[in-house]
Amino acid sequence: MRCKAPLGCDDVAIYRKMVLRCATEFMCIDCLAEYLGVSRQAIEERIRFYRETGSCALFR
Q: Which of 15, 19, 18, 37 is closest to 27 using CA atoms?
């Protein structure tokens, strides 16, 4: 949506989880981190958390 980088499934899933569940346009992890004012590492840790715990259907 911002930098036009190719998106992976994690980019889409974390955007839907953190911003808007019904979104049709997405940001890459780097742009999302900038938008939210956090580090890329913080977002990657959150992705890892959801994937390891199985607590979110977006990361299964």
A: 15
Q: With beta carbons less than 8 A apart as the criterion, state whether 14 and 7 touch.
A: no
Is the Cβ–Cβ distance between 33 and 40 less than 8 Å?
yes
Q: What is the pLDDT of residues 30-55, one digit of tens each?
A: 999 999 999 999 999 999 999 999 98
Whether pTM > 0.85 for this model: the answer is yes
Q: Please give the residue range of the domain that contains residue 51.
A: 9-59
**Does residue 2 lie in a domain region?**
no
- H/E stretch holding 33: helix 29-36
Locate 30 and state its tokens. Answer: 């780097």
